[in-house]
Sequence to fold (120 residues):
Amino acid sequence: QAQLVESGGGLVQTGESLRLSCIDSMNILTITSMGWYHQAPGKQRELVANLTSTNSAHYADSVKGRFTVSRGDAKNTVYLQMNSLKPEDSGIYFCNFQMRSAWGYEYNYWGQGTRVTVST
Fold:
């Protein structure tokens, strides 16, 4: 009932910026929260930013002041603006939507992941 498609990863140098995008291409379910997770090589996936349906944003301490999560005008899209990137930001970024159907069923969907590499 949903399909999350990510884009925007790539290779950048330390201090540069990237903007990740994630869209629910089916746009059927109601999105109750949107999040971005980071998985560094050999480590567990960790939440870096979350945006609630009331546009309340929360960030991991490691990215506060550098990353910004926002929702697109179409409401089924979320962005992650990443500034002042550091090598430790490298890894795969996954978007996550928590969603609800018209009948009240809850769903949790993940994007396919997009790789970010920050070189020194």
